[in-house]
Amino acid sequence: MQQPRKKELHKMVRVTQSMLSNNMLRNLNTSYSKMSKLQDQINSGRKFARPSDDPVAAVKGMDYRVQLDKVQQYTRNMNEVTAWVDTTDSTLSEITNSLTRVQELVTQAANDTNTPDEREKMAVEIKQIRLQIQDLANTQVGGKYIFSGTHTQSPLFSNGTIADPAIKT
């Protein structure tokens, strides 16, 4: 006895020439699109043109840029601080030398062997040293007066007297 055969349903899909052509054109367009994207990356030197191309990389890139900006700002701050410290140090050294010279002149003037003319010359030199110290006290770094406390836009000495912006006249 023969068993009944199950009817096998084979559906045959007919592949037409137009289906093959459309499939080939779609693949070709996809390849051209990928090639265009790669050429844009080569020309621009960037992995992606828009943040939407790779959002994770875009966020990381922005974070790196922020960190780089911070490091550059820290570097600028350190350079400014170094300039302030170096200038302050050299200015204070000059003031110390000037005050040492004043001490020498005062000690020498106290000697009774000096004539009034010699003492007058010493007094003139001391006045010149005083003016020099006033000029040194008005030293600036980057357009800011370094010995004016919080009032860095104003000189410490103005017309031979201490300029105090806190005192209203």
Tell me what the structure shows.
The protein is mainly alpha-helical and 169 residues long. Helices cover 62% and strands 5% of the residues. The protein is built from three helices and four strands, in the order αααββββ. It has helices at 17-44, 55-109, 116-137, and strands at 140-141, 144-145, 157-158, 161-162. The strands form two sheets. It has a two-stranded antiparallel sheet with strand order 1-2. A two-stranded antiparallel ribbon has the order 3-4. Helix 2 (55-109) packs antiparallel against helix 3 (116-137).
Order of helices and strands: HHHEEEE
Rounded to the nearest angstrom, the radius of gyration is 42 Å
- Structural class per helix/strand content? mainly alpha
Report the sheet-strand fraction. Answer: under 5%
Distance between the termini: 129 Å
